[in-house]
Records
---
Amino acid sequence: MDTILQFDHTVIFYIQQHFISSYLTPIMYWLSKITSAGALWILISIILMIQKKYRVIGLGMFISLVLVFIIGDQGLKPHVARLRPFVDFPEVPLVAPPPAATTYSFPSGHSFGSFAAATALYLGLSNICPTKRFWGVIALIGACVVAFARVYLFVHYPTDVLTGLVLGIIVGCIAWKIAKALWSWWTGRKNEVEYEPYTFKRKN
């Protein structure tokens, strides 16, 4: 535990001392705002679900975010109850408005949700439309930037976001498998229409 704390403190204070910039701060804060509560990822999943070709991908992303909410927000966060960095170190000046001090730090919900949704998107595009897999890579890179932003803004420790990264990838993979199974069941069910021979009337 001491090693983990030492790692967290070393990395987060190194970032505070060497990366804080008046040009970078608005970008980091904006990225955190648009991905808060999975807002950006939910929007993308809805846009994809509207389109029949990409509907199963959007479903996978949405399922991943539901799992993140259950596992992260309702499960791990209140049980681990780790205080945020700005609560542990109130003397450190914040570069942007923080979340409520009563919310917990582990794991990072932004990182968890971003990697879960981005992983589901990447796997979906790789299966459904490999030529557009590039957008899944962009989403994963975006998730990395979001994770960095949370440490940059002094609202999460590095291990919070690293745990979110690992859990997010796992949950994204699981969500994609669930989405594929549900989609196969639903489309198969729709196609299973039985008719009486030669009459083309539905069987009762």
---
Amino acid sequence: MFRKKKIDKIPSIDDNAPWEQNLLKEYMFELHKEQVKDRRWRMLLKIIRSSGLFLILLIVLTTGNDGIKSAFSNDGGVEASPHIAYINIQGQIADGTPTSADSLVPALEKAFENESSKAIFLKINSPGGSPVQSGRIYEEVMYLKHKHPNKKVYAIIGDIGASGGYYIAAAADQIYADQSSLVGSIGVISSSFGFSDLMEKIGVERRTIIAGENKALLDPYTPLDDDAKQFWEGVLNSTHQQFITRVKEGRGERLSDDPQIFTGLIWNGEQALEKGLIDGLGSMNTLAREQIMLDKFVDYTPSRDFLHRLTQRAKVAASTLINGTTVSFH
């Protein structure tokens, strides 16, 4: 194996050589020095980047979601001093994600059962998701409120609390948002694709064998007929009515009589306040100071490692792509 010879000083100048040759030697030497410097800087930058990525991953794995104090110490002890328990509900609400019912329900139970927690904050920043997961979380909040009547639940909406995110918020005793938050979108949507015309153009034949005449309902590779569309609209309308019932149950007479509330429209915080969708404008900090009179927060959000969260999100996306049709509060 041959190694490149390290050049630390300029090659000797030959007085008998043409001046062009000596000039070329000087130029090549300077060029070599710049290349060495460039390689060293690139190597240093790679090390810095790798170290930075490792540090970020280490922080995520060891501190959890917000880096704010966890509800449980390393020895498994429960936080004993008076505090406000809060749970993050962020991103798509779906099975297998950190916002699934299986993930959030145990956290809700721990937050309510800790005698030192004086109030429960649901910190919501979600565009919605699964009707099933949203409904299960809603029901659990309502049950725990009944079981622990002395603990109030506040939903605090961040950038967005729409569809399934608002479904969950409706279970809270009071809902607050920023004046620019997006709130509402009380509706149901089913999304799919239609590839039948494309398959015909490229000469691909779809072969589907079924037992049960409607088993291939909404198959994206076959044309959508009127009967199938009418049937599926009935399913969505029924799910929509379930959503409306829960919102009315949670909000009661605070809702305005505006019929547009349940049409799937979305409003900013100021408009939502006028329609009775929220109770006021504010943040976690303002609520803590003005209503709870307590400034200590403890995070009960289930902690998931970075790799697990990434894997679960990929599974949800892949499932949606493969199955074609989804029903969601989006």
---
Amino acid sequence: MFEYLKGRLTKITAKYIVLEVAGIGYILQVANPYRYSESVNQGLTIYTHQVIREDAHLLYGFETESEKDVFLRLISVSGIGPTTALAIIAVDDNEGLVRAIDQQNITYLTKFPKIGKKTAQQMVLDLAGKFVDVTVEAGNTAPSAPAGNLALDEAMEALLALGYKATEIKKIRAFFDGTTETAENYIKSALKMLMK
């Protein structure tokens, strides 16, 4: 229904961002909300996909058309819902994802939250060779200033929202204790560690 929204970013949480368009605040579920930290109170174009359920109308947001395309292909696979697709996109390694699918690397795919062996095999079956026209685009937002432990708290909350287990997050958090970084960078580093 909506191809994209143009508006002003007014709020960032661990689970979503709010984009104000013509006086209306739209809640957009995104892969890594903190990647937008530098854009608060600035104008943005966010590509969108709407999911209508009996109990909710949800909008999912993406920085690029390419990211949206990957999301749409992922949710076409049986067993992968929007939340799981966002968790996969949050790793920010489309090339690695496409390579794993094309090379039938089930071990890599099962490292994503809520992706078991059966779903990983279904991903290979449904998506192998289908990503040739997907271009990998870099994000266009710069990291914000470090915010200490608050940033780490926010990052861990975002990982929980993406579907990672509390036990996994606890181990990751211990690694970052005592460091000072942005929430966006904590999330990126943590996702890389979780995928190893």
---
Amino acid sequence: MKNIPLTMVRQHLNDIPQYPFPSPFRVRNFKPGDERSWVKIETSVGEFADEDAALKHFDKEFGSHVHEMKSRCLFIENGDGEAIGTTTAWYGALRDEERIGRIHWVAIRPEYQGQKLAKPLLGAALQVLDQYHPQAYLTTQTTSFKAIQMYLDFGFEPLLHAPGCMEGWTLLESVLNRKIIK
């Protein structure tokens, strides 16, 4: 499938779907030292070539805001207390707009994917964003069509703002067998 970058927006943070974590999984907030957990998870899903590159990116993006990570970064733990998934209820701006909420760096280690963990994680992250922002956005790509299906189910909508967007959403309508562009 052609890899086309896409952006999605949730215009409000009302009526956020909530899903329980299946046992023995649970969600918790970032704590000191979790940089390494983030690095391991993000590297495991192929976001970075190696853990050193991931740590450099973490430091660049979050290092000066690590105090905010305690309330904005979530981890899924397995029954042994090991971090196996993460996302960050962060912030950013679309175009020149004011700062809004952002679902950022969603990842679940491959051996735990397919265990109904993504929806509870996304719901928990949106609940965090609701404490700070009236709306949210995220960036993704057409190759993440399973995640896009979930984002659509959570009320995110396509943002048509760049060349190629319409091609991407048309492709996804076919792949997901669902009307997306209204």
